[in-house]
Amino acid sequence: MTSLVKNIPIANFSLRGILPLLLLIGCIAALFFVPDLLKVSEHRPSDAVPYPSKAAAVRSQKQVAPAESGTTYRSPLDSLLESMSKTDSRAQKAELQLPAADPVSWELLRSEGAQNAVQNARAEAQAILSKLDERRSNSRHALFNLISVLDLVSGDASRLITAPEAAEQIETADLAVAAALQEDGVDRSVYQRWMKVSLAPALQSHRVDRIKFQQLRPFDPNLRLTMVLVSKIDPRPNTYDRVQSRLEMNGVVEGSDIQRLRLFRNGRFVQEVAFGLPDEEGLRHFSLARDVAYGVWTFKAYDGEDGQYEKSYRFFPVVERFPRDVFNYVLPFVDPYIPDPRLDKLFAVSERKGRFSDELQPFTTF
Question: Torsion angle, CA of 199/204/208/213, rounded to 10 degrees?
Answer without folding.
Answer: 80
